[in-house]
DNA sequence: TTCAAATACCCCCATTTATGTGATTGAATA
DNA sequence: TATTCAATCACATAAATGGGGGTATTTGAA
């Protein structure tokens, strides 16, 4: 029996979803609420397996609700449920540990399937949402194979720069003279086309050299 | 009619998949190859809608094949097909613009459904893969709402530090004295618990303050 | 064999940072 | 009203950095 909590401000939809889910074999709706203002309490007392969470709700909305729950409970599966598949909300929800992201236009049968999937550790997503998620991945892309031809040693130095080490500390860490560190760093700056530690660090992050 | 190219080193599986897909209504397998050594040519001559790509292949493997295709063609949908849902390959594939990631144990009917989904711009993923993708998202997470209580002004300064600006340049940019920049930076260091520019920059990236 | 790259080291010196110890103003708030 | 705090500026000084010159050894590829 999958125990479900439901957060949805629209009374019709809330009723409808409750009926659908609670009326289905193997599902049990423990409660349905119009916003997340008491979600911390509700989750800890009802102990649901899955939370169906609308994003746009007056009062405490779904994203805030998500955060609140995730601050204390990493166990329950949270399925975001919205009308729009807009990039910003998707990203924010997933960043905050949502387990899935599905659109309200999802047909009932599919919805139940999704809940089931979420309950068993899956990550159900509407196709259009999944596509956007993947796009985000490729956007934060590595300029393929672009490590700027840094030599092994230079990469090591850059790693340590990123850790905030000073020249002196790097020298100690690598058992080489500080002057050697300097010449490595000069070479790194050349290759990365930068001329300061902070730029090098920034570039290392941006281009995932680290 | 969905035009499919297939890359799979195992002869049995290659045959089997070809039969399955080509034998199904609405699908057409244009070709099936045992590795990606000629993929650039094959893709440009066959112009498939979907590529089914095994990852582990001798010679030019699936990830390399993916990269090769994406270097010239952003249009075709590429579905990665593997035995294991190991984190590293998933991440790498998605980074390089794969459109989906499904396991070989996927039942035939589901497989066809996935190909269809990929062809129409979706991003089919096996549930376990989707779950891992989401986990990656929340791993690269912001310590929720944690901007270390930087004031507006301090954030601005940090932004410029990240851009590699020197104190002097920041002062000029913000129309304030260098000493003021200094005191802002001191405050920033305090709040971030660091004591150098490069550490601050690294932290800014890690915690997405920028 | 020759040559380029990578590695390691050295010196000099101007500039930049990091740190410390102040002060003043104005806005918010208790 | 008193107090706090962000934001601004000032002066001093030691340490670290960046940019400019170099040299020597090793290693692997042409």
From TrEMBL, chains A, B:
Gene3D superfamilies: 3.40.50.2300
Residues covered by the HTH luxR-type domain: 143-208
Entry GO MF terms: DNA binding
Name this polypeptide is given: LuxR family two component transcriptional regulator
Organism whose genome encodes this protein: Cecembia rubra
Domain Response regulatory, first and last residues per copy: 3-119
CDD domains, per database record: LuxR_C_like (cd06170), REC_NarL-like (cd17535)
Biological process, per Gene Ontology: phosphorelay signal transduction system; regulation of DNA-templated transcription
